Amino acid sequence: MNKLKKKINLAKKKWEEFVDNREPIIYVGAASCGRAAGALDLLSDINRFIEESKVKAKVVEVGCIGPCYLEPLIDVKMPGEPRVSYNNVTAKTLQNILKAHFQEGIPFARAAIGHFGSDSYHGIPRFYDLPMLKPQVRIVLRNCGLINPEDIDQYLAVDGYQGLMKALQMSPDDVIGVVRQAGLRGRGGAGFPTFKKWTVCRNAPGEQKYLICNADEGDPGAFMNRSLIESDPHAVLEGMLIAAYAIGASKGIIYIRAEYPLAIERLKTAIAQMREYGLLGTKILGSNFSFDIKIKEGAGAFVCGEETALIGSIEGKRGMPKSRPPFPAISGLHGCPTIINNVESLGTLPNILRNGAEWYTKYGKEGNRGTKTFSLVGKIRRPGLIEVQLGTPLREIIFDIGGGVQKTFKAIQTGGPSGGCLSEEFLDLPVDYESLASVGSIMGSGGLIVMDEDTCIVDVAKYFLDFTQKESCGKCVPCRVGTRHMVELLDKITHGEGTPDDLLSLRTLGDTIKKGALCGLGQTAPNPVLTTLRYFRNEYLEHIKDQRCRATVCKDLIEYRVIKEKCTGCQSCVRVCPTGAITGPRSEPHNLDVTKCIKCRSCYEICRFDAIAGDAIVIRTAEKKS
Amino acid sequence: MPEPIRTILEKHSREPDELIPILQDVQKEYGYISAESVKGISKYLRISENTIYGVSSFYAQFRFTEPGRHSVKVCLGTACHVRGGATLLEMLERGLGVHCGETTEDKRFGLERVACLGCCALSPVVQIDKEIFSRMTVNRLTEQLKEYE
Ligand SMILES: Cc1cc2nc3c(=O)[nH]c(=O)nc-3n(C[C@H](O)[C@H](O)[C@H](O)COP(=O)(O)O)c2cc1C
Ligand code: SF4
Ligand code: SF4
Ligand code: FES
Ligand code: FES
Q1: Residue A385 Cα to ligand 4 middle (Å)
Q2: Chain B CB within 8 Å of residue A80 CB
Q3: Cα separation, A263 vs A274, whole angstroms
Q4: Which domains does chain B have, with CATH numbers?
Q5: Same domain for A347 and A371?
Q6: Which of A36, A377, A601 sits opposite B79 (nearest CB)?
Q7: Is A40 exposed, middle or buried (0-12, 13-18, 19+ CB in 10 A)?
Q8: What pTM value is reported for the model?
Q9: Complex-level ipTM
Q10: Averaged pLDDT of chain A
């Protein structure tokens, strides 16, 4: 441990020099979102600028700070000045930003979104005072976007691995006691008390025990775990060490989706650094605790997020769930006691150990302690990654943090394909495990999808069922056959061919699947349909009785038309139409051939944004068939 | 046995746990799992070819036909779905004249769907080869595809 303490002192000194920078620092948000938004192009522009104008500056790639909709994000920190953050940076604004800082010695305030100093600065607001950031409590995400995820020294300097050191000075049972007192519940979905699983595993007989980090993140439309690993991999790895010490595991595996190549890279780098610092291997930090970690890439099966299927997949088999008991905590990987914990559960542990259980229980509420991260996406103004205390009302998340909905709010889906779709009347519902369950949804791993009037509820329900049906492993008949029936019924309804009886069948099927399925996939698969049937029944009925899709999504029920009186013949739609369905000479009203139209919405979108033509193209919901 | 597959095999121990990692390495190298590769793996791990096909067909990741020169993956995760991902896929199917999961006749593009690339905040998202394009529209996608040979 002394060796590490020396390294920490060095790291702290390095960090202080880094923070009291004598050289300018340019931070580039280079997590997956940032890269998708073009961060890497900006990075090479920055390097070119540095070279050509012969200035001195350090360029650091950081992870996701949360407001992904602002990507690409570039920050500049000049010596003695606060770090200034710029959003949606283009190649052109980048030049202005760099010129302002490096040639004029002032920030390019017009394009800045926030600064990280304490006082007011050139009229730029403080970053953490931004409406998206202010209501948040950042515990798991505390380092994301702030430190260099590829530099273990930066993690050490911000008190990294202090939680582990505290843990190693306690007995494993005491570590479990702290986690119990903190009230931590699993963040992977079910919210099972972490200490309970651990105790079972700790007491289970067996020489060899395993700890598995579940980084499969199967909920399509959620990226909390990806972001945390990309932005602060050591937090998750430190959590793994703490968990392994507590349960007595000497081998660890990270099971991670292959769709996350950057996260995998960052883990590999971090693991190599841990080895170098004596944080992996035998007798870690001079204790009697030995541990090593291997990475296994998933192969694209949602069901492998389920514990027994995941274990099967690691063993090289088809990832099919097994009936429990025996629970993995007693007989898991290769028949050995195994604990599977989610990335975020593990990432929370260092904070709990470092600051103590009492500190953690200040956040959240009785029975739902601490914070939870969410990926807030869909039809929301400020999509991104957020962290709030458990018990925060949905309204605060959607409107205060997310900035509200682009058009009119319709629904929010929590818990992904296993969760439910909640309507406006639930906006004041506190987000905690029990409240969500009481209205037929679940917390899940943290995906929040916001929908507005342009989202068709029946289409969304069909989407989720189609997903789970395709991902069903096929072992149980209710799940395999039942979900297929449900998809067929929903399909019928979206084509305007449904009958009121279908709604009854959907409910009955849903209840049957929930009761008869072996694993969580089947047991929760009907939730999106059951909740929408309950809270959005009218929309189903409109599809059935009036053949009407009010969101104009269900293609069989809509038609595109040109309003001749409004069309100026600007030809924008002609250019975007992929099938040549729209014709007409310039400056004269156009024709739209419905037999050629594939209803791709391109003309509608472009026309609406064209000030001259405005609204000349409309989507009509089909007239009632009698 | 062709050289690359031997090099791949030798990086792994002969335990059944290694089957999926080997398949993944083979696919990374060749772009797909050929019948010949399956034979090689079967001998190396002493697992029947049937078992290997059984396991590999369970997972969406593995493909058994030669891929196109460029892979186009349309995200159909929830965030991308509510923002028009399905329309992008339909457009591509029409434009390229193939169904999802197929390769164009000239082997230029292979079209696939994916369940989420983790960039949901910037949806809809399309991945071409290794690059991820965010906030995609039908028109930008059509333009972008022109850049690939
Ligand atoms: C179909 C299915 C998919 C799941 N997918 C995930 C996942 O992607 N990530 C995850 O952490 N847990 C997932 N879970 C839950 C895990 O099985 C497990 O409960 C969790 O990883 C335990 O960790 P925790 O106690 O730290 O939450 C899934 C469960 C089911 C039934
Ligand atoms: S419920 Fe569905 S996914 Fe789960 S074991 Fe049964 S068939 Fe497989
Ligand atoms: S909806 Fe698409 S296919 Fe139909 S007319 Fe408009 S652009 Fe053309
Ligand atoms: S990826 Fe950069 S803020 Fe989310
Ligand atoms: S849903 Fe498309 S990137 Fe996540």
Answers
A1: 8
A2: no
A3: 16
A4: 3-58 (no CATH), 70-145 (3.40.30.10)
A5: no
A6: A377
A7: middle
A8: 0.94
A9: 0.93
A10: 94
